[in-house]
Amino acid sequence: MNETLNIDNLAVKDKWKQRFKLFEALDAGVRSRDEIFKSKEFKALSFREKRLFNSFWGFIGAWIYYFCKGMHLKGGCILAVTLLWGGVLSLFDFFSGIDMPNAVYWGPISAICMLFAPLDFYRRTLYGETMWHNWPKKLHDKKGVIQFLTTVILLQVMLAFFIYNHTFFSLAAMDSEDAVRLVCGINNYYVTETELMTYGKESICAEFNQ
Length: 210
Description:
The chain is mostly helical and 210 residues long. It has helices at 14-25, 33-38, 40-43, 47-51, 56-61, 63-68, 72-96, 102-127, 142-165, 171-174, 193-199, 201-208, and strands at 167-169, 180-184, 187-191.
């Protein structure tokens, strides 16, 4: 940051100015988040001051919040990671038969954004940081982030196509709100509870595989 820059003159809300001054006092521009949290200066802060390191809107908005704050490269990477995380969970769900709660898909990413958004916005505003230093150099420019995001989206499309083509329903299950899912190898079959009790999983899987 330019030492002559006065935080009070920045075009941000007073709460952000308060954050920036606190971050400056903790050398947050050169320290990692872990180093800040382990420092004696941080431990001496009040509970209210420590809360300034978290962002409620970062939790609610996640990658959208990053875009709104002008952190486009980081926002694009967070979106890509969000899609990758969702893809991994979808595969786990598909092959395990375990229905993952919706919160598992968005909760961890939102929590990360809540914890990192204030520091990231501070470093963008005062130091011009556009990407995390420890991320691959290729992602430090717009072209690299777009390529990363495009690749992830293509993987998501392929995953959706795979799941669609390996998911089957019995005629009765198509009209049932209580269909039961059976995982048979690389396929998922939906049947009614009555069909499952009558024929059993092995017979149903064998019938679908014919």
